[in-house]
């Protein structure tokens, strides 16, 4: 029996998401090897100690690509997508993006798609902390009449965002809409909170026809975030509500974000073309 091929992945960033990916793969033991982690200059030594000898911590994309990963997984920021996405895709290496708010810029989205098409690489957008995107993708084959995404987080999760200057976050006592607008604006103004706004738009009605609301809700259960997806189409309606646990050290990000990334990577090794 032939030995199973193993997927080699490299990570950009070593925060809560990357650490959870390490934990999931350690527990589930899929045929996946994390070969390297790209971190900021000055963080290499501490990261190397944390990840162990089998993983290489580096501070340049060139060094990361020398490890010959099959896929580079962005778990850092929109800026990382802008800085390094095109280079990764040009090399013919698959690129998984979770900070999809960067693609609120249509020119960048087109550039990365065109680069991937030319090189044969795949640009992968995991679902993040939301469900129902499979239904939305199917419904867009017909006529979409309305797509609305609502991200709901406790008031303190919006600290460090424009909402902090517009609202007295600690004093909010009832669910309060802190932003209403386009996916591109949501992703740009709330880069650590609203990447999924752009993901929903790209999977559905597009950046101009998707409604976005961001809500500060002090009534959420402790340690939780929530979201709603509302779709109206000629094929029917979809209404989905999700309540999920946020990262212990990062209330801006849901645990499900890392789990969907892990699941997508595990689907690759289960696919017939791998």
Give a brief rundown of this model.
The protein is an alpha/beta fold.
Structural account:
It is a single chain. This protein has helices spanning 16-28, 44-51, 61-65, 78-90, 106-119, 133-139, 163-166, 183-189, 195-203, 255-270, and strands spanning 7-12, 32-38, 56-58, 71-74, 94-97, 123-124, 144-153, 176-181, 210-216, 224-233, 236-247, 250-254. By secondary structure, it is an alpha/beta fold. The strands form 2 sheets. A 6-stranded parallel β-sheet has the order 3-2-1-4-5-6, sandwiched between helices. α4 links the parallel β4 and β5 (94-97). α1 (16-28) crosses α10 (255-270) and α8 runs antiparallel to α9 (195-203).
Low-pLDDT runs: none
| Strand line-up of the largest beta sheet | 3-2-1-4-5-6
Strand coverage percent: 25-35%
Distance between the termini: 16 Å
Topology:
Blueprint: E1 7-12, H1 16-28, E2 32-38, H2 44-51, E3 56-58, H3 61-65, E4 71-74, H4 78-90, E5 94-97, H5 106-119, E6 123-124, H6 133-139, E7 144-153, H7 163-166, E8 176-181, H8 183-189, H9 195-203, E9 210-216, E10 224-233, E11 236-247, E12 250-254, H10 255-270
Parallel strand pairs: 1-2, 1-4, 2-3, 4-5, 5-6, 7-9
Antiparallel strand pairs: 7-10, 8-9, 10-11, 11-12
């Amino acid at each position: 029996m032939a030995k199973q091929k193993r997927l080699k992945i490299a990570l950009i960033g070593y925060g809560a998401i990357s650490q959870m990916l390490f934990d999931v793969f350690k527990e589930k033991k899929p045929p996946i090897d994390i070969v390297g982690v790209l971190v900021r200059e000055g963080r290499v030594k501490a990261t190397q100690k944390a990840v162990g000898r089998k993983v290489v911590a580096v501070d340049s994309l060139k060094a990361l690509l020398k490890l010959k990963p099959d896929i580079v997984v962005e778990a850092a920021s929109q800026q990382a997508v802008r800085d390094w996405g095109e280079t990764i895709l040009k090399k013919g290496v698959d690129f998984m993006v979770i900070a999809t708010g960067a693609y609120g810029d249509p020119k960048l989205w087109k550039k990365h798609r065109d680069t991937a098409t030319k090189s044969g690489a795949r640009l992968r957008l995991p679902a993040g902390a939301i469900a129902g995107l499979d239904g939305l993708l199917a419904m867009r084959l017909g006529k979409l009449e309305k797509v609305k995404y609502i991200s709901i987080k406790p008031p303190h999760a919006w600290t460090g965002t424009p909402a902090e200057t517009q609202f007295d976050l600690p004093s909010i006592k009832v669910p309060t809409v802190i932003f209403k607008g386009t996916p591109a604006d949501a992703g740009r103004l709330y880069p650590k909170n609203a990447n999924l706004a752009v993901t929903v738009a790209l999977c559905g009605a597009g950046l101009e026809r998707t409604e976005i609301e961001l809500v500060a809700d002090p009534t959420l259960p402790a340690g939780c975030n929530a979201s709603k997806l509302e779709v109206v189409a000629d094929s029917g309606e979809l209404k989905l509500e999700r309540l999920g646990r946020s990262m212990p050290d990062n209330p801006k990000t849901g645990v499900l974000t890392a789990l969907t990334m892990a699941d997508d990577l595990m689907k690759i090794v289960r696919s017939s073309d791998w």
